[in-house]
Automatic annotation (TrEMBL):
Residues 1-12 have a biased composition (Polar residues). Keywords: Polyamine biosynthesis. It holds the Pfam family Spermine_synth. SUPFAM superfamilies: S-adenosyl-L-methionine-dependent methyltransferases. The lineage of its organism: Bacteria, Pseudomonadati, Pseudomonadota, Betaproteobacteria, Burkholderiales. It comes from the Bacteria. Coiled coil: none annotated. InterPro entries: SAM-dependent_MTases_sf (IPR029063). One of its GO terms (biological process) is polyamine biosynthetic process. This is Spermidine synthase. Residues 1-25 are annotated as: Disordered. The keyword Disulfide bond does not apply.
Length: 259
């Protein structure tokens, strides 16, 4: 996603050695950029804890299958939308966000209402690959959300079978990974094939408006009972105000397309 709005630069968010974090604002929405036109996240100013972008909402599709996660992890902070939502709406869960760029962490605290770390929230400046390779994290994550893009947004910056194997290793026995696949067309197949080498089941749902595809990768293949999923979607809509019925429709369409 791109914007043509005037960018407001913040010198405090241009630590050397990393892309600068900048913002634009339009019609009450603040957008995050890494020094380019590409949108890396967004926040509606009068609803700072809501998830604004459709594909980011879709990164919560794991909620169709898990209701009481104990640990939620984001690889890639973006505008902190997933981190804030998980922290606020799942009060019994520990939430960890891994971000390599200190400028992103700084601007999220100053401009995107990211709360400071506490007993449940742990935002770390580190490489996502180091996190997933660390044996201390293996078997500990119920929901893993992966959205790793550099300033050019041509495709995920980590996309090898070895990376996805490490993500698999971090999940609990019935853990789920949600990942965003966006960029040049060859990246779609490359990432999907790498995930399919590792995970028990891999399904994907295209976003309606842009070119993002959100992938659900299951450590253990689930049973897809669509009556149960639609019931769960209605509960998610009521409690969290997320368009979960669209997610189930997307999963249903995916199944039809595979036949």
């Amino acid at each position: 996603m791109t914007t043509d709005f005037t960018s407001t630069s913040h010198t405090a968010f241009s630590h050397p050695g990393h892309p600068p974090a900048t913002t634009t604002e339009h019609r009450g929405i603040r957008y995050l950029h890494l020094g380019t036109k590409w949108v890396q996240g967004a926040m509606r100013l009068d609803k700072p804890d809501a998830i604004e972008l459709e594909y980011v909402q879709m990164m919560m599709m794991w909620m169709l299958f898990k209701t009481q996660p104990k640990r939620i992890v984001q690889l890639g902070l973006g505008s902190a939308a997933l981190t804030k939502f998980s922290y606020r709406r799942f009060p019994d869960a520990a939430v960890t966000a891994i971000e390599l760029n200190p400028n992103v962490i700084a601007i999220c605290g100053a401009q995107f209402a990211l709360p400071p770390n506490d007993a449940r929230l742990d935002v770390r400046e580190m490489n996502a690959l180091d996190f997933v390779l660390d044996p201390a994290n293996h078997g500990t994550v119920d929901a893993l959300q992966v959205d790793l893009y550099d300033e050019e947004a041509r495709g995920p910056v980590l996309d090898t079978p070895e990376f996805y194997q490490a993500c698999f290793d971090c999940l609990t026995d019935d853990g789920i990974m949600c990942t965003n696949v966006f960029g040049d067309f060859p990246n779609y197949d490359k990432n999907l094939q790498a995930m399919e080498l590792v995970f028990d089941a891999v399904v994907w749902v295209p976003e309606m408006e842009d070119e993002n595809i959100v992938v659900l990768a299951f450590k253990k293949s689930p049973s897809l009972d669509f009556s149960d999923l639609y019931e769960r979607a209605a509960a998610i809509k009521k409690q969290f105000n997320l368009p979960a019925k669209n997610w189930v429709n997307g999963l249903k369409q995916w199944m039809l397309d595979q036949q």
